[in-house]
Amino acid sequence: MLSTEEALRLVLGYAGPQVEKIVPLTDSAGYVLAEDIHSDIDMPPFDRSAMDGFAVCGDEHTHDLIKEITAGETRRIGIEPGRAAPIMTGAPIPHGADRVVMIEDCTTRESVLYLERVPPKGANICWRAEDITAGQMVLEKGTPLAQQHLGIAAMAGRGVLKVFGRPSIGILTTGTEVVPPTWIPSPGHVRNANMPLMIAQLQLAGFTDVISMHAADDPSSIEVSISQLLETSDVLVLAGGVSKGTRDFVPSVLESLGVSIHFRQVAQKPGKPLLFGSFPSGQPVFGLPGNPLSVMVSIEEYVLPLLRMMSGFKGCHKRLYHGLMTSEYSKKPGRLHYLRVLAYREGDLWKLHLPDTSGSGDLMSSVNVNALAMVGANALSVMSGDILPFHFLSSTAGELSFA
User: Fold this and answer.
1) pLDDT tens across 100-127, in order?
2) 90 and 139 fall within a common domain
3) Same domain? 159 vs 107
4) How many helices (H) and strands (E) does the chain have?
5) Residue 343 domain-assigned?
6) Do 60 and 98 belong to one domain?
7) C-alpha span between 390 and 21 (Å, rounded)
8) Nearest to 195 by CA among 177, 216, 174
9) How does DSSP assign 58-110, residue by residue?
10) What's the pLDDT score for residue 172?
C-alpha cells in the first residue's frame, strides 16, 4: 500500500505535455500564462500630472494663469517662469513645467495664482517610463492570471494572450442504490451527493469544463459511460465501485478497456481504496471510494494537483501550515489520517478545531471546515495542544492553498 507522498508523486508523473492556446485578453482570467509579456511602450508614455492642480515653472509664489490642460490634450503646450496652467489628473505636463501644485495649496484671483506653499521640484508629476520602459518584461510565463495581470497586459498593448489550456474532466458516479437529489429515496436508496460535490470542488478550483454522468452497478452500463466520457475528457474521475465487493465493477471494467492500473490503495483515511490508472490514449483516470468525504479528500489531495500541473501552474503541492489542536483524537497506526478542521487565527497562532463526527462518512461534520490536518501514519493519538501540519482547502484559500 502506497504512502500519500508516493501516490501523489506517481499521479503527477502522468500529467503529460501542457497544451498551449491563444485566448482573448478579456477571457484569460484564471488561466496560466504560457509566454513572457513585454511592454511595447513606456509607461507612463508621457510626463503627466498625478492630480488636479496647477502646472508651474520655478518656485515663485505668484503666477499668471493660462488656459487649462485637460486629460487627453494633444496640443503641444509650453510654459514659462511666472506662468501657471490649470491641469487635470492624467493630463500631459506642459514643456517647461517642473512641478504641479495641489489645488489645496493655492488660491486664484483675477487670473493670478497665489501659492501658499511651494512644492519641491518634480512634485506631483508622473514621469515618462517611471513605471515601465519599452521592452521591459512585465509578466512572466507561468503567472496565474488575475485581474491585475490582465490590466498590466492591456497596458503592454496585448489584446490576446498565449496561455496553458485547462483539461476537461469527465465525472462518473456509480451505484444502483444512488438516486438524483430531487428524488425521495425509497428503502435502500441514497441521494447522489457526490456529483454536485465533485463538480463544485472542481469549479471552485477553476476547472469548469466538466461533463458528468451516472451509471448503475452494471459492467456494461459502466463501460458505456466511461467510453462516452473518454471521447471528450482529458481526465476521468469515477466515484464508487472501486473496493473489493461483489458489485464493485469499476476496476475490472477499466482493465477491460486497456487501462493500466498504477495503484489501488493508499495508506490514508478517509480514502484508502483509491485507484489511479491511465488509458492507452494517455488520459489519467481516478477511481474514488463512494463516500462523499473520501471523494472530497481524494480530489483535494490528488486530482486538483494533477489538473494544476496539466494547466501550467507552478504550485501543484499543498502549502503546509502548522496549527495547535484544541481537542483530542486517537487512531490506529498504519495510515495517515486527514482530519476535517476549522483553522482560525488567535494571536500569532493558528488553532485547529475538530468538529464532532460520527465517522468518515459523516459529511455534515464538514459543514464549517476550511482545512485538512494531517496525523502521521505511525501516530496513535493527538492531544489538545499538539501542533499538527495542515493545509487549507483550495475552495477556501485558492492559490494560498498551493505552493
Assistant:
1) 999 999 999 999 999 999 999 999 999 9
2) no
3) no
4) 8, 29
5) yes
6) yes
7) 35
8) 174
9) SS-SEEEE---B-TT--S--B--TTEEEEE-TTPBPPBT--EEEEGGGEEEET
10) 98
Q: What is the pLDDT, as a whole number, of residue 361?
A: 66
CA distances from 162 to 33, 135, 314 (A): 6, 18, 16
Q: Is residue 175 part of a domain?
A: yes
Same domain, 236 and 142: no
**How many Cα atoms sit within 13 Å of 22 on the Cβ side?**
3
**C-alpha cell, 265:** 490503495
- Is 27 inside a domain boundary? no
- Same domain (yes/no): 325, 370: yes
The pLDDT score that the predictor gives to residue 313 is: 96
Q: 389 near 319, Cβ under 8 Å? A: no
Q: How far apart are CA 49 and CA 101, in angstroms?
A: 10
Instruction: Please report the pLDDT score of residue 170 as a whole number.
Output: 98
Could you tell me if 139 and 267 lie in one domain?
A: no
How high is the pLDDT of residue 402? Answer: 96
Q: Which three cell numbers stand for residue 293?
A: 468525504
Low-confidence ranges of the chain (pLDDT < 70): 358-361
Name residue 125's beta-bridge partners. 49
> What are the two backbone dihedrals, phi and then psi, of residue 84, each rounded to the nearest 5 degrees?
-145, 145
Same domain, 136 and 187: no
The CATH number assigned to the domain holding 184 equals 3.40.980.10
Whether 171 and 199 have beta carbons less than 8 Å apart is answered as yes
Instruction: Residue 78: give its domain's CATH number.
Output: 2.170.190.11
DSSP H helices, 194-283, are 194-204, 219-232, 250-256
Q: In terms of pTM, does the model score above 0.85?
A: yes
Sheet strands side by side (includes 235-239): 210-215, 169-174, 235-239, 284-288, 275-278, 260-263
Domain that holds residue 179: 4-19+166-310
**Kind plus residue range of the DSSP H or E element containing 381:** strand 381-382
State the virtual CA torsion across 303, 304, 310, 312 in degrees, nearest 10: -170
* CA atoms within 13 A of residue 250's CA, in its CB half-sphere: 33
Strand partners, 356: none
Angstrom distance (rounded) from CA 127 to CA 232: 52
